Amino acid sequence: MENPQGIQFKTLEEFLGYLPEDELEIVLHLRKIILECMMDCKEKLAYNVPFYYRHSRICYIWPASVPWAKVGKSVAIGFCKGASFLDETFETAQFSSKQIFTSIKEIDISFLKQKIHEAILIDEQIVKTRRRRIQ
Predict the structure, then answer these.
(1) Partners of 93 in the beta sheet?
(2) Integer Cα distance of 101 and 69 in angstroms
(3) How far apart are CA 27 and CA 45, in angstroms?
(4) Can you tell me the distance from the alpha carbon of 105 to that of 88, in angstroms, rounded to the nearest whole number?
(5) Whole-prediction pTM
(6) Burial class for 4, CB neighbours closer than 10 Å (0-12, 13-18, 19+)
(7) Quick check: 5 and 66 in contact, CB under 8 A?
(8) Which of 60, 65, 111, 126 is most buried when burial is the number of CB atoms within 10 A of its CB?
(9) What pLDDT score does 1 carry?
(10) What is the β-pairing status of strands 96-101 and 42-46?
């Protein structure tokens, strides 16, 4: 199947090098926050953007310059199990949610860290549920 994006990054460095400066600044800031909150996460490219995993996919960073995102001229952070969040702050779609930023000034760091920690708890619950079913 042909890649509809027309681009394929092999490494995170290649992805970061592709981004325009305004998006790169936001991506690096979001990435730093994620890595501070989830030191044990795995960072992998999927769909040409970085996804962050523990037991399952937790979140991703999707800049507008990578097609498919539909985020305009900005950068989205999305949560893969966002539909399980306790509040409706994030724009929610089936099994995911996202918040879009056009500058790092818009990022409420403490709120974002709270959402990341909530996503980690959801990830832990999923693993516990799977383990119970296996036993």
Answers:
(1) 96
(2) 13
(3) 14
(4) 22
(5) 0.82
(6) exposed
(7) yes
(8) 60
(9) 41
(10) unpaired
Cα–Cα nearest to 85, from 57, 114, 107: 114
Quick one: pLDDT at residue 96? 44
3-state secondary structure of 56: coil
pLDDT digits (tens, 9 = 90+) for 58-78: 999 999 998 765 667 799 999
According to DSSP H, which parts of the chain are helical? 12-18, 21-37, 109-134
Q: Which two tokens stand for residue 115?
A: 């959402």
pLDDT tens per residue, range 118-129: 999 988 887 777
Q: Note whether 32 and 112 are within 8 A (CB).
A: no
d(CA 97, CA 62): 12
> Which of 6-10, 28-32, 57-61 bottoms out in mean pLDDT, i.e. has the lowest?
6-10
CA-CA distance, 66 to 87, in Å (whole number)? 28
Separation CA 21–CA 19 (nearest Å): 6
User: And the tokens for 82?
Assistant: 């966002």
Kindly state the average pLDDT of the residues 107-112.
94
Please report where in the chains the tokens 């199947």 appear, as a residue.
1
